[in-house]
Amino acid sequence: MNKKEVLKLKEEAQNHLVNELLPFWESRMIDEKNGGYITHFDKDGKDTGEDEKSLIAQTRCLYTASSVHRAGYGDGRFAGMAKHGADFLIGKMWDNENEGFYWMMDRKGNVKIDRKIIYGHSFAIYALSEYTLSTGDPRGIEYAQKVFDLIQKYCTDTMYGGYWEMFHRDWTLCGPGSQGGDRKTLDVHMHLMEAFTTLYECTGRDVHHRKLLEVIDLLLYRIIHPKYKTGIPQFFKNWEIAPQIKFETIWGWDRFSAEGQKANLTDNTCYGHNAEFAWLLIHALDILKTNPDVYADVFRTIFDHTVNNGIDYEYGGVFVEGSHAGGVYDMEKEFWQQAEVLTALLDAYIMFRDPVYWEAYQNVHRFVMDKVVNKAVGEWYPLLTRKGEPIWTHMGHSWKINYHTVRSMIQSIQRLDKILQSM
Amino acid sequence: MNKKEVLKLKEEAQNHLVNELLPFWESRMIDEKNGGYITHFDKDGKDTGEDEKSLIAQTRCLYTASSVHRAGYGDGRFAGMAKHGADFLIGKMWDNENEGFYWMMDRKGNVKIDRKIIYGHSFAIYALSEYTLSTGDPRGIEYAQKVFDLIQKYCTDTMYGGYWEMFHRDWTLCGPGSQGGDRKTLDVHMHLMEAFTTLYECTGRDVHHRKLLEVIDLLLYRIIHPKYKTGIPQFFKNWEIAPQIKFETIWGWDRFSAEGQKANLTDNTCYGHNAEFAWLLIHALDILKTNPDVYADVFRTIFDHTVNNGIDYEYGGVFVEGSHAGGVYDMEKEFWQQAEVLTALLDAYIMFRDPVYWEAYQNVHRFVMDKVVNKAVGEWYPLLTRKGEPIWTHMGHSWKINYHTVRSMIQSIQRLDKILQSM
Predict the structure, then answer these.
(1) Cα–Cα–Cα angle for B122, B126, B128, nearest 5°?
(2) Backbone phi and psi for residue A241, each to the nearest 5 degrees, phi listed first
(3) pLDDT digit string, tens, across residues A25-34
(4) What residues of chain B lie within 8 A of the CB of A152, using their CB?
(5) Residues of chain B whose C-beta is under 8 A from some C-beta in A?
(6) Considering CB atoms only, which of B149, B152, B173 is closest to A156?
């Protein structure tokens, strides 16, 4: 690798961010009529009209607008877009009676699904903290802290540790099985780590610091595989591994069979999650002013598992999932996994300076730019075949928005800059 | 045993309660000048003038006054005494800036020790809930719930489960060792069970129900000895048994050596705590509408350990502490252990109808009435020799008040009534 080659990749990422991704969202996401964000777009970037505003799409758009502004893009316009979303989130999605945010509204702001879902609340903390860090509006951190307090009150399991994840409107715990009230997941705990990191970055408060350290320990010593350091998706309350099932309340299209079960019930790990966990932990340690080398073995194991199993060296990009011990079950390509692996592989290269990670980064970068980006409009296809032909083609939906795509470009550019500075 | 014998014991308890204990406190505890309760009395029942109002003595007096009224004693006068204490507790001891209650005030209500100690906060929840149950004043349960919420926010260990116990004024965790910030104790978790029981009795709320079930599980599966079911006093955060040390902030006079350590660092169990745990759990199960027989083995084991090791069949009364496997280390007699064992042995008899428990009850009852009660004034000596000669003689202090003595009489009378009805 040489400087020119790195510079070229950085410029390509910058161009994609500034001239494709940001204009796509800036020109479409503001709901002038009802407030908040419009989040449903077809392959041509046309509003599908679906009458939904989900907690995760609203908070992720708020995060995106805030982070874009904080990273120095958009000449202040994204700060205004962030405020627009914060107004709707706080004004319309907050449950004034029971506190917390509703899970799903219609576009006007009427409640469609009133469950209190911690996955969504982790993004509320993340986005509202980023919003205050970016704009200085104190409402962001005020509500981020309210949500943090609610989670500590209603969701901790004081017997086995960790957090319960699925609640009814009044914060009574949902039932077991597909209602999810008896499960603990990698997904939620990882996103709580992400949320508590930015919350602590904003407040510097001791309690946020402590709970961040605790959720890091939960991820390291309960949730990732003791040997392979790969993420285990679902657990029962006592951290016994649970067969991976589909929940009633979903936030993605994990591909389950008609029975709602995976073929490999208890031996599934997802490359995107593993890589995302690794770089989010490196970021958390940075905010905590802790040297990430203390977990160098964990990072090396995760990154090696990713490059040895998750990368498609034939057709490019990142596979969906496989076994903890190695070997791939699902060779399709999901957009968000590409995004998270991009950031993670740059962290891997910066940490270990191993050219294997750089090669893998180049591979995924190329696959994203050449296959995943829908050139006609500038956003990413959500799902592609192994070879890179689009399977699903919508550009926006309650579970597919700008958080992974925009963040991966902002984070990659910062890391490519760091690499350039060290050359 | 016959009915006449039971009746005689009940009448003796009733007489002691109504004609000795309650008049002692009614005539002395109200601080007309500064509000709140006066809690320091010498062996003659004379105010010592010590310029202290401790969180535990104030909350325990509030509990006592409230529970006396709820149990039907005092013709309404104790409701007024309870309100008098609630006014001081809420008005003077609450930290308006950081929330929570201060640990130690002077009589006027100036802060002397500003730490946030969870032992004291468990009694705040217990007393304030009992106060609302007894008088209907909604301020009690409002503040009980505020304290519950603070404990959930600041004190849970989301990695290993359980609660942290010692905090600074701003709810930052205290340091390790003698500051207690790295320890978890039987004492605090048992009193949280007691507190959450009365909190849930008052509110019927789901979250109070869940946290009560969780703390019961913590006690059953982390804190009591797996084989002997006896209480283990101190743990590190991961529930590894910690050598029993003396903390900087204390709430009693546990006898440590000059070095602040017990002779039997990791093999100490206290008969009073074991018996108290058993009857408080039976009471919690009653409030939870759960049949206590599900834990019959646990109760039988604890009660048998108590009667086989803790009862002094030669001189009467309950010893201080000994080994989990059996055998006594400390043969002195502490007042509170007598009180808790009285209630527990009646529960044991009601549950198993084993005459061994009835005999042990009679033994302790006799020892209390003949030796522990300071006949001249009507309260109990705090500490006596094995043979029953007073060692310490104060009647009231920040760590020695009416909670154990009055409660044991109210609870014993109710249980003796139950036994009488079944005869």
Answers:
(1) 115
(2) -65, 130
(3) 999 999 999 9
(4) 152-153, 156
(5) 149, 152-154, 156-163, 170-173, 206-207, 210-211, 214-215, 217-218, 221
(6) B152
SS3 A117: strand
- pLDDT value at residue A121: 98
Q: Burial level of A340, CB count in 10 A (0-12/13-18/19+)?
A: buried
Token pair recorded at residue B245: 């040390």
Phi-psi region of A276 (alpha: psi -120 to 50; beta: other; left: phi over 0): alpha
Whether A395 contacts A335, CB under 8 Å: no
Query: CB A161 to CB B163 under 8 A?
Result: no
Backbone dihedral region for residue B294 (phi beyond 0: left; psi -120 to 50: alpha; all else: beta): alpha
| Helix/strand/coil for A423 | coil
Q: What is the ipTM of this complex?
A: 0.94
3-class DSSP state of B110: coil
pLDDT of amino acid B208? 98
CB B43 within 8 A of CB B400: no
Report the SS3 class of residue A109. Answer: coil
Can you tell me which residue has the tokens 């020790």?
Answer: B113
Residue in this structure with the two tokens 């999650």, named with its chain if needed: A273
Angle between helical axes of A403-421 and A55-70 (0-180°, round to 10): 30
3-class SS shares of chain B: helix, strand, coil, % to 5:
55, 10, 35
Residue B234: band (very low, low, confident or very high) from pLDDT cuts 50, 70, 90: very high
Q: Coil, helix or strand for B202?
A: helix
Cα–Cα distances in angstroms (integers) from residue B332 to residues A232, A267, B335, B368, in the given order: 54, 59, 10, 13
Report the alpha-carbon distance of residue A257 to residue A237 in Å, rounded: 25
Burial class (CB in 10 A: 0-12, 13-18, 19+), A114: middle
In this predicted structure, what is the pLDDT of residue B255? 61
DSSP labels, A297-310: HHHHHHHHHIIIII
pLDDT of A68-115, one tens digit each? 999 999 999 999 999 999 999 999 999 999 999 999 999 999 999 999
* Distance of alpha carbon B80 from the chain centroid: 23
Q: Which residues of B touch A154 (CB under 8 A)?
A: 207
Q: Are A179 and A165 in contact (CB under 8 A)?
A: no
- Give how far A264 is from chain B: nearest CA, Å: 28
Check B161 against A159: CB less than 8 A apart.
yes
With vertex at residue B339, the alpha carbon angle to CA B323 and CA B247, rounded to the nearest 5 degrees, is: 55
Q: CA torsion angle for A55, A59, A60, A66 (degrees, to 10)?
A: 170
Backbone angle region of B230, left / alpha / beta, with phi > 0 → left and psi within -120 to 50 → alpha:
beta
| A42 in Cβ contact with A377 (< 8 Å) | no
Per-residue DSSP letters for A179-207? G-TT-EEHHHHHHHHHHHHHHHHHH--HH
- Return the residue of A nearest to B172 by Cα: A206
Query: Contact B319/B328 with Cβ under 8 angstroms?
Result: yes
Helical axes A271-287 vs A335-352, angle rounded to 10°:
50
For residue A157, the one-letter residue type is D
Tell me the C-alpha distance between B381 and B372, whole Å: 5
All residues at 6 or more sequence positions from B98 whose CB lies less than 8 Å from its CB, including other chains: B116, B169, B170, B171
Chain A residues touching residue B160 (CB < 8 angstroms): 161
**Whether the predicted model's global pTM rises above the 0.90 cut:** yes
- Percent of residues in chain A assigned helix, strand, coil, to nearest 5: 55, 10, 35
Q: Which range is least confidently modeled, A32-46, A253-267, B177-191?
A: A253-267
Measuring CA to CA, which residue among B237, B236, B322, B235 is closest to residue B271?
Answer: B322
